[in-house]
Every structure is written in C-alpha cells, then in structure tokens.
Design goal:
- This protein is an alpha/beta fold and 404 residues long.
- It folds into two domains: 2-40 and 280-392, Aspartate Aminotransferase, domain 1 (Alpha-Beta Complex); 59-275, Type I PLP-dependent aspartate aminotransferase-like (Major domain) (Aspartate Aminotransferase, domain 2, 3-Layer(aba) Sandwich).
- The chain is built from 14 helices and twelve strands.
- It has a seven-stranded mixed beta sheet, with helices on both faces. It has a three-stranded antiparallel beta sheet with strand order 9-12-11, with helices on one face.
- Helix 6 (121-128) links the parallel strand 3 (111-116) and strand 4.
- Helix 5 packs parallel to helix 6 (121-128).
- The longest helix is centred in the last third of the chain and has 24 residues, at 279-302.
- The model has no long low-confidence stretch (mean pLDDT 93).
- The structure holds pyridoxal-5'-phosphate.
- Pyridoxal-5'-phosphate binds at residues 35, 93-95, 119, 164, 168, 196, 198, 227, 229, 235, 240.
- Pyridoxal-5'-phosphate binds next to helix 5.
Amino acid sequence: MEGKLSSAAKKLTSSPIQELSHLAQRCNAINLAEGFPDFPAPPHIKNAAVAAINSDFNQYRHVQGICDHLAKTAKEMHGLDINPLTDIAICCGQTEAFAAAVFATIDRGDEVILFDPSFETYEGCITIAGGVPVFVALDPPQWTLAPSKFLRSFTQRTKAVVLNSPQNPTGKVFSKDELEIMAGACRSKNCLAITDEVYEHITYDNEKHISLASFPGMQERTIITSSLSKTFGVTGWRVGWAIAPTVIASAIRNIHVKMTDSAPAPFQEAALTALKSPPEYFESMRRDYESKRDYIIELLAGAGFKIQFKPQGSFFLFAELPDNCSLSDVEFIKKLILKAGVVAVPGQGFFHTNNLSSNEDSIISCSYQKRYIRFAFCKSGATLAAVSKNLGKILDTRGHLLLH
Ligand SMILES: Cc1ncc(COP(=O)(O)O)c(C=O)c1O
C-alpha cells in the first residue's frame, strides 16, 4: 500500500520522539512536553463561545469584526496600515495560516530560509509545497544570529525567510538589530518574510515584541501569521489569521476555503470577545507566565541544568543538560519519565542543520544538538509544584540530578 502514498506523505513520517509520548502516557507522567496550558481558559471568552453556540452560530462563517479589530491593533502596536476587508484571512489556527501562506507563495525549488533550532511544522509545509528549507543555525548559548552566516544563506532561488519571534523552542525574542539585518536582506534580495507571531503578547522583563513587518519596506513583503491559541490558552479552538499584502491575502483566503472552508463559527465569535479583552488581561497573563518562568528556572538550575539563556518570551525553557550528565537528550527524557514521572521534549527534534551538507557550520552545530531539553512551563502552580516534588526523588545529597 505504501506505493500508493504521495512523495510528500512519505517525507512526513512520525518522529521517534512520539515513542516517548507513548511511554509518558503509559507512565502517567506530568506533562511539561506540550505547549498548552493545563488550567482553565479565561471565563469571559468561554462564556462568549457558549453564548455563540446558544445563538446558533453553527454554519460556515467569516466574522469580519475579527479582521477589523486586528487591523486596528496592527496600527496601534506596529504602525501598520491594513485594509481589514482585503488584507486578512481568518484560518484554522496559525498552523493553517502558515501552510496557506506557504502554498500561496512557494513553488517547487524555491528556497526558504529558517532558523535552527525552530518549531517543527514549518519544514513540513515547505517540503509539501516542493520548497527547499535552508537552515541558518543560531549560535548557542544566547541563540544569536551571526549576520554573515545569515547573509551567506541567500541564493538566486531564495523566495522567503521564516521568522518566529518570540521563539519556540528557545524563548528568544529577536533583537531590533537582528530584525534590521533580516529586513535589509529581504529588501535587497527582493524576498518575502513569513512571520509566526503566536507569542506576540508573551514577553518578559523589558522585552517587547516587534513585528518584522514594521520595518521600512517590509509590510509590502511580509505575511504575518498568528492566532488565539497561546494568548488565550485555547489551542483547541483553531482560530488564527494571516495578514498580508492584498494579492497574497486573497490567495491565502482562496487556499483556506479549498482546504477547510472556514474556521469554527462559534469560536470566531468568541475570538472577537477575546481580542477585545481589556489591557489588564494581557498584562496579568504575561505576569503569570513570567512568574512561572522564574519558578522553573530556579527549579531546574537548582537541579544542575545549565541555563545560560533566560527565556525572553514564549512559555518554553530550553535547558542544557548538566555537564556531568553523559546521557543524550532522548536517553535523559526516557529516564526522566521512568524515574521521576515527568516528561519534556528532547531538543534534537528542533534542530535541522545536521541534515545539510557537512560544511563547517553544521559540524560545529551538531555537537550541542543532543544536549537540550525543552520544558513547557504554561502549567498550573499545582503541576509545577508536583514536578518539583517528583524531581526531588532523583536528586543526590548535593541536590543534583541522579540519572546514571
Ligand atoms: C511557534 C508556534 N507556532 C504555531 C503554533 C501553533 O499555533 P496554532 O494553534 O494557532 O495553530 C505553536 C504551537 O505550539 C507554536 O509553538
């Protein structure tokens, strides 16, 4: 039967890391692997969703109010002039918005620049479209972008750069200088940018999210994708959007209609209520995640993890295994599940550079790729306290992890 599969399907196999998920399920491990909250969504938006169902918003639907509101906030936050009637496509989460953006712009053989490490789904979409992902390694431990490495990765066939900031898995918020370099390169090479801004409202300390589209000459070449999922803790509601120059937004809308027709009607109604939440909602959500970040850093640093980079945004901590731990990231997670009943994600799934030809950069980057663990800290206080208790079971008398 495999012969019947398309070449795209054959390329998208499930990862060995999924085996760890099964093990975690069998052991009933506390889940710090997945990037969604285990606490309730805000009551005001749940009530809006219930009210929408009770009002019989049950059919295919486009809630124009979402576009109107997004255009207004894009102006307030980033100074962008967006036509809400033509420049926004509502999709089923950022995931569909991103896929539609790729299918709308990427042809067979087009190269698309991505950063390494990065969120896993981009590569798959680009590959399905026949595009060629080109990874540029960010330099640990601060995950800095080396301009020369980035600029070297452009060729005649480069069509787009993908940027996720604040970033999954590292928690990096790309600096204004780094964004300036990206914008300059996109302009001079006449490339598009596709941004994933799902963590736009989750930044810490003095960091602020800046959209790449806000740099001179960038709005006309940037597709912004984002969603309700992370800001409101409703990843299952599947409401997201793409904001793009009119012609591209129209193409994305056409693709979206062919793939899914419309995002869930009642949740679009609730999305409007969510997006109109008062500023206090966004500030208290941000502060809650910041205190969870500080808690998990203290917990894991205390257990011997090397935390050289404090997340500046998103809700992930990308922690390096202790120097004296000889296990790989996958081996470590297996033991963490079995001995402490906690599961997180081995970092290697976020790295891709070693798939490229063995140039100097990729050889250097390989050495650290199996040393990181991604912990999602978007969990309740009770869950984080349970993790702390369970980790206590595998600490030696000096308080360091005992996993050998
Ligand atoms: C960087 C990033 N983008 C997109 C998504 C998925 O967003 P959505 O639920 O809107 O499809 C995730 C989920 O983990 C993510 O981490």
